[in-house]
Amino acid sequence: MAGTARRERSPGASAAPRTMMSLLDYHVHLWPHDQTAEPAEHTIERLAAYCDVAASAGVGEIALTEHLFRFRAGRDAVGSFWQDDTDPDRRATMSAYFDHHATADLDAYVEAVLAAKRAGLPVVLGLEVDYYEGRMDAVSRLLSGYPFDVLLGSVHWIGTWMFDVLGDAVSEREWQERGVEEAWRGYTTALEELAATRACDVLAHPDLVKLTGRRPPASLLEECHDRMAAAAASSGMAAEISSAGWRTPVGEPYPAPGLLERFRESGVAVTTASDAHGSPGVGFRSGELAVIASSAGYSTLRAFRSRSPHDVPIVADDVR
User: Fold this and answer.
1) Using 50, 70 and 90 to split pLDDT, how confident is the model at 36?
2) How far apart are the first and last CA of the chain?
3) Phi, psi of 12 (to 5 degrees)
4) Burial of 222 by CB count in 10 Å (0-12 exposed, 13-18 middle, 19+ buried)?
5) Average pLDDT of the residues in 89-110
6) Which residue, 214, 218, 219, 224, has most beta carbons within 10 Å?
7) For the chain, what is the radius of gyration of the CA atoms?
8) Is the pLDDT of residue 197 over 60?
């Protein structure tokens, strides 16, 4: 049974947002992927250290957005969907992935972030929610009982293919067997389906499928970009400008300039993010993200309270 976290509303949720704010980092995790979740790490002191790192990078507010698959309740909601896959290697890989990650308590996480908010730390309560085909209604039912400020929507796997796990033999085999064009088409379709559920507020790292540096021919790339922008616009979702791509083989932020241009033309709002897994990466290259957003024609960033959007200005001092 869920605890009091499910019944408590975010303090100050109805308060008017600040009219001036420095940059946002709306994608921050507590644990690196190679670590299991530790309840002792749910402390105000630890979250305050995250905020200190953010402030030093010119970031005025962070969204704590741990992966839903980190929590036992998340796994219970989506079930062992990989068991339907006919490929034993993909089944085994994803089963081991969830066994490693799904160890945390969702109520404890929510309570910790709410406590940080009550203490006056500049944090908002979020989650990163993967796309689970045919299971998003169950995900939404679970999350509706909690006072989340923002939900990020992500595509990290296509079916049961975890395409973004670098160095994994099964993932690499799939890249070779499926090919780049099929990968991009499958990713784009999954992103469209995720957006159509309207279960989340922000598309995280929208063109994540490029992380290995593999891109399709220009005509297909443009088609995928057009479809991604249309999906975001029709769902009302914002899109993330993320510095995480600089830490992967592709060596550039998400989204690519062409996709960001399409977001702007389609009226899709943006936010900025580091996708940090631990405090050292919070606010990573935040000033450069501000320049990218401004150069694309944006003067504001999208922020959230209680799943309701509001825009905050990109302060001139942040663009440097």
Assistant:
1) low
2) 49
3) 75, 15
4) middle
5) 90
6) 224
7) 19
8) yes
Angle between helices 218-235 and 180-197 (to 10 degrees): 10
Q: Work out whether strand 23-29 and strand 59-67 pair parallel, antiparallel, or are unpaired.
A: parallel
| CA angle, residues 302, 186, 227, in degrees to nearest 5 | 45
- Per this entry, what is the length of the chain? 320
Structure tokens given for 41: 């790490």
Number of H helices, E strands in the chain: 10, 10
* Mean pLDDT, rounded, of the chain: 89
Tens of pLDDT along 39-98? Answer: 555 678 889 999 999 999 999 999 999 999 999 999 999 988 899 899 999 999 989 888
Q: Could you tell me which of 196, 161, 156, 205 has the C-alpha nearest to residue 182?
A: 161
CA quadruple 147, 60, 34, 36: dihedral positive or negative?
Answer: negative
Alpha carbon of 121 to those of 49, 62, 102: distances in Å?
A: 10, 9, 27
**So where are the chain's domains?**
20-318
pLDDT band at 186 (very low <50, low <70, confident <90, very high): very high
Tell me the residue type at 160. Answer: T
Secondary structure element (H or E) that encloses residue 20, with its range: none
Question: Would you state the CATH architecture of domain 20-318?
Answer: Alpha-Beta Barrel (3.20)
DSSP 8-state assignment for residue 195: H
